[in-house]
Amino acid sequence: MAVAAAAASPCIFCQIAGKSTSTTLLHTDEKVVAFQDINPAAVRHYLVIPVDHIPTVKDLQRKTEDYSLVSHMLEVGKTLIQRDAPQCHQYRFGFHQPPFNSVNHLHLHCFALPYTPRWKCIKYLSVGSIGFVEAEKLLGKIKPLPPGISKV
């Protein structure tokens, strides 16, 4: 995304990905950027977002490109969290699903636990197929099927 387009975008995450805000980036590459959540819910709470605008997890499909992107987002998140909170022994990685997402730009929440304060865990509960979906579970849903096999 061009910097001028990002600056004009109403999407705050597009602006961050386009480096048109003062947000400190913890990681940047051609596919994703990562930064601290402005309202952290854990010892460490980072967001990893794609540079390209993808509204929500509902926009992901069983395509190699989508699977690769989410895998890369998770890899970046794990690397950052484990680097910055090696003393923590519990980590959590996942996505909010509509209508529970606060920003309509795909973003991976990366936590080094415990939650702070502890009640904030409520916002990140997985309840059936709504609310918050663990990154590994999402990867299972969007993993491309082998050639010749169709989803029943």
TrEMBL record:
The keyword Nucleotide-binding applies. It comes from the Eukaryota. Keywords: Hydrolase, Nucleotide-binding. The active site is at residue 109. GO terms for molecular function: adenylylsulfatase activity; nucleotide binding. A motif (Histidine triad motif) lies at residues 105-109. Gene3D superfamilies: HIT-like. SUPFAM superfamilies: HIT-like. Residues 12-120 form the HIT domain. This is Histidine triad nucleotide-binding protein 3. It comes from Pyrus ussuriensis x Pyrus communis.
